[in-house]
Amino acid sequence: QQQVKQSPQSLIVQKGGISIINCAYENTAFDYFPWYQQFPGKGPALLIAIRPDVSEKKEGRFTISFNKSAKQFSLHIMDSQPGDSATYFCAASISGFQKLVFGTGTRLLVSP
Amino acid sequence: DAGVTQSPTHLIKTRGQQVTLRCSPKSGHDTVSWYQQALGQGPQFIFQYYEEEERQRGNFPDRFSGHQFPNYSSELNVNALLLGDSALYLCASSYRGRGDYGYTFGSGTRLTVV
User: Is residue B82 within 8 Å of B15, Cβ to Cβ?
Assistant: First the structure.
């Protein structure tokens, strides 16, 4: 119940295209869903986060879509750029607690 | 404004040895969490320290222990190293034990056990 399942494992998108990464969870107590971006040799950096009281959150080219009934959430990267090439992790936690449960990651490659 | 600082950046140890990793949290943060990230995997929660006490612990054996100092910095100790302990160890800091207020990760310590 503590797992967060992430797909796809890897993704290749052309420059200017839309990158979509999906995650699913089981624990309905989760109420905070962040996405992290990780470049090689670096730690994860918070990209965008959402709570289940909204169905969508947009920040620049990055959008989280959240489906509470399906227990799924996804990251959309619009107008993908080569600089977006990185590994993306979804995560989930219960507010007030430190433990983040991470997905297995998606390696995104944006071709020029 | 310094972010999370971890040392050392790389470390090679022999099976059975002990290792200590260090972390200084971001300025203004008082909570430190440690994660293990195996190659090609997502980070796995080890434990969290707030007010110099271990507040939460993940599914890791007692060989993994930690400490938080009055200046909020933290150490992760691993005893009796196994080959499977080879991983990137990440430290994350936050404020008042709230991960949803913003988690800042360090760049990690790459531990190789041979």
Answer: yes
